[in-house]
Each structure stands twice: as structure tokens, then as C-alpha cells.
From TrEMBL:
Cofactor(s) the protein requires to work: Zn(2+)
CDD domains according to UniProt: QueC-like (cd01995)
Amino acids binding ATP: L22, S23, G24, G25, L26, D27, S28, A29, T30, V31, L32
Enzyme Commission code(s) on record: 6.3.4.20
Designated name of the protein: 7-cyano-7-deazaguanine synthase
Cofactor binding summary note: Binds 1 zinc ion per subunit.
Alphabetical list of SUPFAM superfamilies matching this protein: Adenine nucleotide alpha hydrolases-like (SSF52402)
Keyword Glycoprotein: no
Pathway info: Purine metabolism; 7-cyano-7-deazaguanine biosynthesis
Keywords, ordered alphabetically: ATP-binding, Ligase, Metal-binding, Nucleotide-binding, Queuosine biosynthesis, Zinc
Gene symbol of the encoding locus: queC
Matching Pfam families: QueC (PF06508)
Residues bound to Zn(2+): C201, C211, C214, C217
Length: 239
């Protein structure tokens, strides 16, 4: 799935190149659209990490293709080998609601691992920023979606890389971090994002149909309702 897509940009400056983490969901699609609108040459990066379904990877590829990313790459990992999450361990059920505390859908160290690999690719393509759709407002309580985590990783990036040591500052861009889900949807809609292409559900089937019951589906439904935007999600069932 490592693909070079149609591009119109050439000889792009490093400060206008970006690695965009693209999960196939609503938030990351919005991040990609915003980066492209700001003139970045975008290298979209997805991960096959042992998650419950591959529908989100299919969605990520079609989003990258339709939006015109410079390249699309899927890195294969096996976080299911350590388990610890309902998204990577089939013995742990995905709950219908997030509940209190850090939910079982949290994947241990996922964003740390993803950002580390994105950092490596950024050095290879000479990109100065990594864009990720973490959110500290309408989110599921994951510790690696907080501003403190992002700031700490950015500091690490600038002492752990050749680029950083040579004075080429690397930035972790989090354009959605202070937005509600409704505000994210409104932003994406203004940028022309086709949310019908996205898959956010933790329990989507092979066709990308959403369960309509998990925490991610609840947040997505509420976001579209509050944004007063028609929900294009294809659901297996309604609740």
C-alpha cells in the first residue's frame, strides 16, 4: 500500500512538507484537508497495527487518493502481540460506552509508536512537521491525546533526530486539539471533506459499516447532530 499519488507540486520547501497520520477516520481526514488547504505537500501515513478491522485502512487509502496526497504509506506493526486493548485483543469486548477512567479501547503507547515512525519518515522526505488529529475536547480519555503529551514528544523529536540537531526544528501540529467534534465537522465540511469516505467505528465490518453503538460512533453521531450537518455514515444498526 505504499503509493505515490497524483501530484502537482514540485521542489517543495521542507517547511511546506508534512507527514499526516491518516487513520481513515473523521478527524484525520479533516487534518489532511486542512494541511492541504494550507499548501502543504502531504505524505499520508497509516498503520496496520493488528486492529480489529481493516476497513479503516481501506478508508485511509481512498481518502489519500481522493484528496491528492503526495504519497500514501501503510506501516505494518503487530501491537496485538502485546494486547492490552479492546482494539487489538479479540478477548476484550468493545464496550457500547466509554465509561469512567481510561477506556479499554486505549491502545498502550499507540501514538508514541506512530509518531516515532512518522518522525523517521519526516527525516527521510525532509519534512518539518507531523500532523496528527489528537483532540482534548471530545475524545475518549486517552492519555496520548493530551497537549502535555504532544509538547513532550515535540521536545523529544528535536533532540533525537539528525534534523533537530542540525537546527531544523520539527513541529508536531495538532490543529484539532481544542475543537469539539461538531467544530471539527464544520471545519472539514468547509474544506470539502467527504465524510462518507471515512470510518470511525471501533467495530466496523469488512464493508466499513458502523455499529452505531460504540463510544466512537456516539461521538461521531453527536458531532454531526450538533454541527447541523447530515450524517453520511453507513450504519449496521441504529441506536
Amino acid at each position: 500500500m505504499n503509493k505515490r499519488l497524483n501530484v502537482t507540486q514540485h521542489n517543495t520547501r521542507p517547511d511546506k512538507k508534512a507527514i499526516v497520520l491518516l487513520s481513515g477516520g473523521l478527524d484525520s481526514a479533516t487534518v489532511l484537508a486542512k494541511a492541504l488547504a494550507e499548501g502543504y505537500e502531504c505524505y499520508a501515513l497509516a498503520f496496520d497495527y493488528g486492529q480489529r478491522h481493516r476497513a479503516e485502512l481501506v478508508a485511509a487509502e481512498r481518502i489519500a487518493q481522493s484528496m491528492g496526497a503526495k504519497a500514501f504509506k501503510v506501516i505494518k506493526l503487530d501491537l496485538s502481540s502485546i494486547g492490552g486493548s479492546a482494539l487489538t485483543d479479540m478477548a476484550i469486548d468493545v464496550p457500547d460506552a466509554g465509561g469512567s477512567g481510561i477506556p479499554v479501547t486505549y491502545v498502550p503507547a499507540r501514538n508514541t509508536v506512530f509518531l516515532s515512525i512518522a518522525l523517521g519518515w519526516a527525516e527521510v522526505v525532509d519534512a518539518r512537521s507531523i500532523h496528527i488529529g489528537v483532540n482534548a475536547v471530545d475524545y475518549s480519555g486517552y492519555p496520548d491525546c493530551r497537549p502535555d503529551f504532544v509538547a513532550a514528544f515535540e521536545r523529544l523529536a528535536n533532540v533525537a533526530t539528525k534534523a533537530g540537531i542540525e537546527g531544523h526544528t520539527l513541529h508536531i501540529a495538532t490543529p484539532l486539539i481544542d475543537l469539539s467534534k461538531a467544530e471539527i465537522i464544520q471545519l472539514g465540511t468547509s474544506l470539502g471533506v467527504d465524510y462518507a469516505l471515512t470510518v470511525s467505528c471501533y467495530k466496523a465490518d469488512n464493508d466499513g459499516l458502523a455499529c452505531g453503538r460504540c463510544d466512537s460512533c456516539h461521538l461521531r453521531k453527536e458531532g454531526f447532530a450538533q454541527a447541523n450537518v447530515a450524517d453520511p455514515t453507513a450504519y449496521k444498526e441504529t441506536s
